[in-house]
């Protein structure tokens, strides 16, 4: 059987480039829309996978995903898989920031959350640590919102 016209062979090329600023390329997990507004909701899991595990497998970040690009009016929801404290800062020093939330130990299977409205295109850094441990911040414990193409070079 001959292929249908829309399934004929084609070729394309892909060119990589370094982004220099925020690009609206992240896909929202949930989209609410009506005739007056569209709201994008981005879900970021904190501590869903251990950074290091006993079997040698590890995640590259405490946050999943480790960065997103969102536009003003969108909302980021951090879902905490454990008793984590969340911190927020600017680009100058993402590891020294005031605490935003303190999430207590929840019942097994329960996930607490914290919502952050996106108010501008300005880069914002977040970090997290277990509430009962001393505060630790490095490339694996930070999250970037609208940080451009080199999200981990500022930590």
UniProtKB/TrEMBL annotation:
Compositional bias per record (Low complexity), positions renumbered to this chain: 8-20
Domain of life: Eukaryota
Region (Disordered): 1-27
Name by which UniProt lists this protein: Plastocyanin-like domain-containing protein
Organism of provenance: Aspergillus brasiliensis (strain CBS 101740 / IMI 381727 / IBT 21946)
Lineage, highest ranks first: Eukaryota, Fungi, Dikarya, Ascomycota, Pezizomycotina
